[in-house]
Amino acid sequence: MFHIEPMLPSPFRVVKNRKETQDTRTLELASATGGDVPSWRPGQFMMLYVFGAGEIPISIAGDPARREAITHTVRAVGPVSRAICQAKPGSAIGVRGPFGSAWPTDRYEQHDIVLVAGGIGLAPLRPAIYAIMANRSRYGRVLLLAGSRTPDIFLYRREVDRWRRRDIEVRLTVDAAAKDWTNSVGPVTTLIPRAEFDVKRSAAFIVGPEIMMRFVVQALAQRGMSLDHMFLSMERNMKCAVGFCGHCQLGPAFICKNGPVFSFSQLEPWLSIRDM
Amino acid sequence: MIRVAAKNSVDALLNALRRRGYTCIGPCIRDGAIVYEEIRSEHDLPIGHTDEQEGGLYRLKKRDDEARFGYTVGPQSWKRFLFPPSTMLMTARRTADGFTAEAPPDPPPRYAFVGVRACDLNAIEVQDRTFLKGPYVDPTYKTRREGAFIVVVNCGQAGRTCFCTSMGTGPKAKAGYDLALTEILEDGRHEFLVEAGSERGHEVAAELSTRPASQDDTDAAQRMVDRAVAQMGRSMDTTDIKHLLYRNLEHPRWENVAARCLSCANCTMVCPTCFCSTVEEVTDLTGDHSERWRRWDSCFTADHSYIHGGSVRPTTLSRYRQWMTHKLATWIDQFDVSGCVGCGRCITWCPVGIDITEEVRAIRETDGGKGH
Amino acid sequence: MEKDIDALLADHLFFKDMDASHRALIAGCGKNVVFKAGEFLAQSNTPANEFFAIRHGRVSIEIHSAGRGPLLIQTLDAGDIAGWSWLFPPYRWKFDARAIEPVRAIRFDGACLRGKCERDPAMGYDFMKRFAQVFMQRLEASRLQLLDIYGNVPH
């Protein structure tokens, strides 16, 4: 337990702002007062603040071992996210956090790990990839099954080869493609029946639209994997990030402090009720 | 320490508190209701008044005595002072190369709450778990709560929507107060039993003119409390209530209550434990100064659960179910205590008189019923 | 040297746990085939008298659009089946099936197999059940693709 000032953002500076797709950018932020960024764990998020506009929760998307900057991949869907995407290097962004629960990489050493990402869901999984690569020998087979709408909007394409070199099997799939695409076409669930991993000694980390996550869980369960070893990163309306405002509740869980990473069996009774 | 004070001792109490720098908040009549505001003398109290409450009904009535605290609870609770409806969290200023952000400058007054009911004291302790006992501590709540002096007044009557006995929260407060008064009114006798619950309560009581309490005095006070128990207007069977609601999330009763609920959010406004809030940034016209404000919100609003272009809970049914199952069930998993203290305000202040005790009863009677 | 077709089918996902005599019957209609990357297994609007059990390599199901070139609808891999238009009249391929890397497959004579299924209903029923599962899986996948869950439409 610790007491932080829960409502005051610290000033950070945009170091880099790189275009990923038409509406998505990856920013690197460094502390404006110099010094290391707060330490954080894969799966956690920060509240990013734009002066006068507001604050939004964004997963941390970079390498947790990196101390001099934090990375966020942001999709412009509203006024605050648009302002963040437009923030030029040198401009100030407020950062509050880190908040939330982490991917249980420690718990699954000596296991196979299946990472399943849909769309921008690859961003909160990327830190887990870094963490696994940093200790690659502690894990068995590591698979990344990533889905995207079309080939041109795959995040982090240039890093895929680097991940493959670290013995991570990467399988990409899109909803639709044109001639030059030689990877798979079809929903990411179609990659699961033939993925090679030990269903009795593995964990799955899943992020994407909720519909996708539900189908992925079903496909993994059909392979014989236990729901206890499947982990999802959830999203709900979030205002405070510290469990006070009440908006992000799903049943008894606060997505901001009990999540965003949950085991599926923890959430299953609540996700199966409509409009919960 | 148990003593007895005369019926007009509230003035001396308020003076003793004000001398210590407290702003005294207590009951007074305004707009046809008993509300909590700053009081300066006992004349501000609703002397000789009581309240008549039922589902969707609240009226003030005159009593035939001069009771200072002869009512139950009004629409407000102490959360309006500990967790204010609207509070500034932060100010920010644009600078040459960015911005600075600061906590607001002015510390709040130190409050003495005079006339805290046992149910409401429990409600404060329930909100303590939200704002003080989790991994994060809310500085606004903490400052106000730590500074607050609590004068409980045990109930000598209960209203028709009260059910504190079912929730184990009253009518007599057990601990957690600085002072507890019980207004003894019987056979022409009108006095206060005064019990200290803390060191500072003891010191304040010492400045009042009191005599030691006899067995007869404590018996009389107990009879007042017993009368409240006997008058209790509602009841709720809380046996295994968490699992009862968890296994009935698709019970047809939700449709029944959804057809009546207006989604007006009154219940959440008057409930002493509800804590939902929203956060807004407000800039001035120059655009160089910004403030972040927190204000009360309600899970009954359409956009409370808004994400990605729509609300997760788009129907009145889903929102009523969220409120009631949170209050009575998931709250227990979150905070190890029920969110309901049996104050009855949600029943009284619901425009259509939805009764949370009746909703639980209806579900219990047909436990395991499924929706379509 | 051609490996015995029946033995190859025993290893193929579609034929998993199939009764040995049924499988042997079906193997009689099968023949090993090989495609180079870029070669078509079948083209749309041609007679459909065959289907393929993919043993190795990736096949794309696509449709050609003037001006935009081929639009890839779904890819199939080892263990998948390509082609169902041979099952029902008018027996014409609706889509293109193209090897996007070197492909080894077993091509089945549709007319031969249709006949055998009519004459041996038990085998026919088992075979149809397996095909029905393929339809179901393809339909589920198509539905998910239709939902466009990653798109700008909020989900």
Task: Tell me the major beta sheet of chain A.
Answer: 7 strands, mixed
Count of distinct structural domains of chain A = 2
| Integer-rounded radius of gyration of chain A | 18 Å
Report on the biggest sheet of chain B: 8 strands, mixed
**Strand segment tally of chain B:** 16
Rounded to the nearest angstrom, the radius of gyration of chain B is 22 Å
Number of strands of chain A: 16
Walkthrough of the structure:
The complex is a heterotrimer of chains A (276), B (372) and C (155). Chain A is built from 5 helices and 16 strands. Chain A is of the alpha/beta class and 276 residues long. Chain A is globular. Chain B is α+β, with helices and mostly antiparallel strands and 372 residues long. Chain B has 13 helices and 16 strands. The radius of gyration of chain B is 22 Å and the shape is globular. The longest helix of chain C has 27 residues, at 121-147. Chain C has one domain: Jelly Rolls (Sandwich). In chain C, strands 1-8-3-6 form a 4-stranded antiparallel beta sheet. Chain C has helices spanning 5-10, 20-27, 110-119, 121-147, and strands at 30-35, 40-42, 50-56, 59-65, 69-76, 81-82, 96-99, 103-109. Chain C is α+β, with helices and mostly antiparallel strands and 155 residues long. In chain C, a hairpin with a 3-residue loop joins strand 4 and strand 5 (69-76). The A-C interface holds A 23, 118-120, 147-149, 153, 173, 175-179, 181-187, 189-190, 194, 208-212, 215 and C 13, 58, 60, 68-75, 77-79, 100-101, 137, 140-141, 144-145, 147-152, 155. Strand 10 of chain A pairs antiparallel with strand 5 (69-76) of chain C, so a sheet runs across the interface.
Secondary structure blueprint with pairings:
The complex is a heterotrimer of chains A (276), B (372) and C (155).
Chain A: E1 10-21, E2 24-31, E3 45-50, E4 54-59, E5 70-75, H1 79-85, E6 92-99, E7 112-118, H2 122-134, E8 142-148, H3 160-165, E9 168-174, E10 177-178, E11 184-185, E12 202-207, H4 210-223, E13 230-233, E14 249-250, E15 253-254, E16 261-263, H5 264-271
Parallel strand pairs in A: 7-8, 7-12, 8-9, 9-11, 12-13
Antiparallel strand pairs in A: 1-2, 1-6, 2-5, 3-4, 3-6, 13-16, 14-15
Chain B: E1 2-6, H1 10-19, E2 22-30, E3 33-38, E4 49-54, E5 57-62, H2 79-82, E6 86-95, E7 98-102, E8 110-116, H3 118-131, H4 139-147, E9 149-154, H5 164-167, E10 179-186, E11 189-196, H6 199-206, E12 210-212, H7 215-231, H8 241-246, H9 253-260, H10 266-270, E13 277-283, E14 289-296, E15 306-307, E16 310-311, H11 316-335, H12 345-348, H13 356-365
Parallel strand pairs in B: 2-8, 8-9, 9-10
Antiparallel strand pairs in B: 1-11, 1-12, 2-3, 4-5, 6-7, 6-14, 10-11, 13-14, 15-16
Helix pairs in contact in B: 9-11
Chain C: H1 5-10, H2 20-27, E1 30-35, E2 40-42, E3 50-56, E4 59-65, E5 69-76, E6 81-82, E7 96-99, E8 103-109, H3 110-119, H4 121-147
Antiparallel strand pairs in C: 1-8, 2-7, 3-6, 3-8, 4-5, 4-7
